[in-house]
Structures are given as structure tokens and as C-alpha cells.
Design a protein that fits this description.
Helix content is 57%, strand content 5%. A hairpin with a 4-residue loop joins β1 and β2 (60-62). The chain is elongated and about 80 Å long. It has seven helices and two strands, in the order αααββαααα. By secondary structure, it is mostly helical. It has a domain at 8-88: 2-Layer Sandwich (Double Stranded RNA Binding Domain). Strands 1-2 form a two-stranded antiparallel sheet.
């Protein structure tokens, strides 16, 4: 069954699966071990130029150094670098934005009740 917008719209979703998300790339830039762990999943002989020319912010391999340097001077690379300068949201921040907080007010009420009970005992 063809997609609603034609046959081309499904192709983009399939291609997206191979691209790393911003938060994963941000972790790669923070921790060298995180990046090495990702690169170990791919066989070097299957990568262009045996995986020598890899752009960390864009998570792409390039066949030679001239293509890599041309890419680093381009607009999509600069846009991605600017996007990575912002700190990604954490799960806790996302839940707080929705209204799901871990503080449900019980602790403060419990403290007030213990203070009242102590006052009554005195």
C-alpha cells in the first residue's frame, strides 16, 4: 500500500533509522568511550576509507580528506555544530514540563504534622 504522500515519504523514514539523534551525538562529544563504543559496532572494512574520516557532530563517514574538509566548511555541518552547543533536555526536565514531578507535596505535609504532634506533646 503506498504512503499517503506518495512512495517517497516512506523512504525518508527508513533512512532516518541510520542517523544518530542529537542526544546520542551530544554524549559522543562528552565521552570518548561512548563514541568508541558506537564505532566498534561497525566493521571498518565496510566503512568508506576504513573509517578514517568521521565527522563526530554529523555522525557521518567520508571517503577522503577533501570531502571531509569540504563538509566541515559547509552549512549543514555548521548548523549541526550550533545545534549541539545547546544542552539537551533530560528526562527529568521533560517530565517537569508536562507536570509530572517527583515532589507531590507529601513530605512537607508530613513535616508539618510531626511539628504539630511535637507541639501537642509539650
Amino acid at each position: 500500500m503506498p504512503a499517503i504522500r506518495g512512495t517517497q515519504s516512506k523512504r525518508k523514514a527508513r533512512r532516518y533509522a541510520a542517523i544518530r539523534d542529537i542526544d546520542q551525538i551530544h554524549d559522543d562529544m562528552k565521552s570518548r568511550r561512548h563514541l568508541e563504543k558506537h564505532l566498534e559496532t561497525m566493521a571498518p572494512e565496510d566503512l568508506p576509507a576504513m573509517g578514517l574520516h568521521y565527522c563526530i557532530p554529523c555522525a557521518k563517514h567520508y571517503s577522503d580528506e577533501t570531502n571531509f574538509t569540504r563538509h566541515t566548511k559547509g552549512k549543514p555541518h555548521k548548523r549541526r555544530v550550533k545545534q549541539l552547543q545547546e544542552e539537551p533536555y533530560s528526562q527529568k526536565e521533560a517530565e517537569a514540563a508536562v507536570g509530572l514531578t517527583t515532589d507531590n507535596g507529601r513530605k512537607k505535609e508530613d513535616e508539618d504534622m510531626t511539628v504539630e504532634l511535637e507541639d501537642e506533646v509539650k
